[in-house]
Design brief:
The chain has 297 residues and is α+β, with helices and mostly antiparallel strands. 27% of the residues lie in helices and 30% in strands. The protein is built from nine helices and 14 strands. It is globular, with a radius of gyration of 18 Å.
């Protein structure tokens, strides 16, 4: 059963709304990962970038280079009444992929294909399968983000996850991340490449600015991110370690990868899926035998 929420305002306010709505699922995800659940009741004057998680490596780089998402993460942690470090650690460990990545590493298919062939205007749709959560695993959510500064967007994500996995903003920019294939089990280096999804949705209206941002942000991991805009342009950001390569192109694009889930190979047609239409600024969710459409036009 899918759950949808609205998050509005400044980053911490949006995080609070998400944390309160999904508190039980967020606490369950932290507990399953063996992370502390007890949030300190004592006010602290420690610097923001201090401690074992935020004070070094990828945690510190998360705070330094993704300030809005870090504030949103703090709000999620407060709303769910879990330590901020536990939630941050949950975000960092997905870089390893495999079992640590959970649904974010599960096999999925991404496809970019032309639409409206009879029209003189070039159009494109982005499509991603959404693997089914296994027993004890928190599932997908649908979220509308209305930031005080930036573009409004609709995203598919997870209860504890700050960035979306697939989303579209009010200008038609559409972004979706493929599975996290494999990565670094340490907490050194840079934060996960998945953070680029939310950055692009909030900041940019077309491919040009979004791709430039994706080239320069300090992220790490083995993951592909597909983008499209209302002009019909399509590009893939291929992240490998700390390197990034931009592959621009039109027409058909098909990516598949990740760890197999409960469906098994060849069962992609049975999975839920999300379809993004930059031309109509709409997100179509085919899930649980029903279709949900959200429109930002």
């Amino acid at each position: 059963m899918w759950t949808s929420i609205e998050c509005a305002g400044h980053p911490r306010d949006m995080g609070l709304a998400q944390g309160r709505a999904f508190a039980n699922s967020i606490r369950a995800a932290c507990e399953s990962a063996g992370l502390p659940l007890r949030r300190s009741r004592v006010p602290s004057l420690k610097a923001l970038t201090s401690g074992s998680v935020r004070g070094a490596g990828a945690g510190r780089e998360f705070v330094r280079h993704f300030a809005h998402q870090e504030e949103r993460l703090e709000g999620v942690a407060r709303g769910a009444n879990v330590p901020t470090d536990s939630l941050l650690d949950l975000h960092l460990r997905v870089r390893e992929g495999g079992t640590q990545g959970g649904l974010l590493s599960r096999r999925a298919c991404l496809r970019a294909h032309s639409a409206g062939a009879a029209s003189s205007e070039k159009q494109v749709l982005l499509e991603r399968t959404l693997p089914t959560a296994v027993a004890g695993e928190v599932g997908w959510t649908l979220r509308e983000s209305r930031p005080a500064v930036g573009f409004r967007s609709i995203e598919v994500g997870l209860p504890w996850l700050v960035p979306g996995v697939a989303g579209i903003n009010e200008s038609g920019l559409s972004v979706m991340a493929g599975p996290i294939l494999w990565g670094d089990s340490s907490r050194s280096g840079f934060p996960p490449a998945a953070l680029l999804v939310q950055e692009c949705l909030q900041r940019f209206e077309d491919l040009g600015g979004a791709l430039d941002w994706c080239r320069k942000r300090p992220v790490e991991g083995e993951q592909s991110i597909v983008l499209a805009d209302a002009s019909g342009g399509v590009a893939t950001v291929i992240c490998s370690g700390r390197d990034r390569r931009i592959q621009e192109g039109e027409g058909e694009l098909y990516l598949e990868g990740g760890e197999p889930g409960s469906e098994g190979v060849g069962d992609e047609a049975k999975q839920d899926r999300v379809i993004l239409d930059p031309g109509t600024r709409s997100l179509l969710l085919a899930a649980d035998g029903t279709t949900i459409e959200a429109n930002l036009a």
